[in-house]
Amino acid sequence: LPEGFRYDGSRVREAHRVHAAQLRGIEEYPLLAKHEGGNISVSLPAAEDDHHDPFSFATAWWRIHRFSEAHRSFQNDSLVWVVFGQMVNILGFILLCYSEIRMVLAVRAQDTRAALGAPPHAQEAQDEDKREQEIAAQRPFLTTTGAIFLFIGTICFLTPLCNVLALIGLPKEGVGAWPCWMVVFFGALFATVMFALFAIAIMWSCTRPWAALVLLCVSVCGNLLCSTANPLLIMLWIGLSCPLLYWYFEWYPAWCRDGDHRMPDWCQGIGSRELDWDITHWGNSYKTAGMGVMRDVKGLLPESTYQQIE
Fold first, then answer.
1. b/e per residue, 261-282, with b = 16+ CB within 10 A?
2. What dihedral do alpha carbons 93, 97, 100, 104 form, nearest 10°?
3. How confident is the model at residue 122 (pLDDT cuts 50, 70, 90)?
4. Which of 12, 26, 167, 294 is 20 to 30 A distant from 126 in Cα terms?
5. What percent of the chain has pLDDT over 90?
C-alpha cells in the first residue's frame, strides 16, 4: 500500500453484513406454499415484512430460484397463465386489426370516389356504399371485442405477478404500496387502452394522419405517466385525455355540422363508433363479419380451387 494509506474495511464489512442478513432471512424463514398445484400462494412471516431489509434484486432472484427448485408446480402454473394470456392477446390483436383495417379500406374507397367524382347513383357505387355501411356497423362491436380479449389476455399474463410479489416483496413506495389485485387489474386496463390506441393510430396514420396523431399522443403520454404508478399522474392523464378525445372526435365535429361551419382539415374522423349492448346486434355483427371473410377468401381463390374446397 502507498505510504500514509490506511485500509478501512468498515464499508465492505457493512455491505457483507446486509447481504448476510438478507440470506439469513431466507434460511430462517423458508418459503412454504400453502398447497401444491393450482395457483400457489406463499406465506411469509409478519415479522419479516415489518422489519425487512432494503430491497435487493439479487436476493429477489435468489428467492424465486430457491422456491422454484423446491416447488416445480410454481413454474408450470406461471407458464400456463403466461401462454394462455399470450394466446388470448394474439386473438384480440388479430380481431382488432381485422376490424380497423376493413374500416380504413372502406374510408379510403370513399375518399377515392369523392376525389374522382364518381356518380353516387351508379349501381356499382350503391353496392359499395351498402358494403361500407355494413363494415361501419360491424366495426364498433368487433373492435370492442378485440379490446376485451386484449384486456383478458393481459390479466392472465400478469396473474403470476402476484405470486412473484409474494415471494420477493417490493419497497413500500410506488407499485409495492398497491394491493396486487389492483396492480394486475388496473395495469391490464391501462395497458389495453394504451396499446389499442397505439395500434389504431398506426393503422389510421396513412388515411387520417391528424386523428392518428391525437390517438398516438394520448397513448404515448399514458405510457409515460401510468408507468410511474403515481395516482396523481394517472388521474392527470385520464383527466386530460378523455376530454381531448371527446372534444376532437365528438363535440367539435358536431358543432361544425350544427352551425354550418367548414370542417378544418386537421379535424378528421375515423369512422362510426356507435355501440349498443343488445346481444342480438353483437351476434349479427360476428355472423356478418364471418360471412364477409368467407366472401373475401372466395374472391381471392381461383374458381376451380374454390370448387375443389367445396
1. eeeeeeebebbeeeeeeeeeeb
2. 160
3. low
4. 294
5. 25
Which residue type does 184 have? Answer: V
Distance from chain centroid for Cα 88: 12
159: DSSP letter:
T
Asked whether the beta carbons of 203 and 101 are under 8 A apart, the reply is yes
User: How large is the angle between the packed helices 209-226 and 180-204, nearest 10 degrees?
Assistant: 160
CA–CA dist 101, 187 (Å, integer): 27
Buried b (16+ CB within 10 A) or exposed e, 94-114: ebbbbbbebbbebbeeeeebe
The pLDDT tens digits for 218-269 are 999 999 988 887 888 989 999 999 999 999 998 988 888 888 888 888 888 8
Coil vs helix vs strand at 33: strand
- Contacts of residue 175, defined as CB under 8 A and 6 or more positions apart, other chains included, come to 183, 229
Q: CA–CA separation, 206 vs 201, rounded Å? A: 9
3-state secondary structure at position 266:
coil
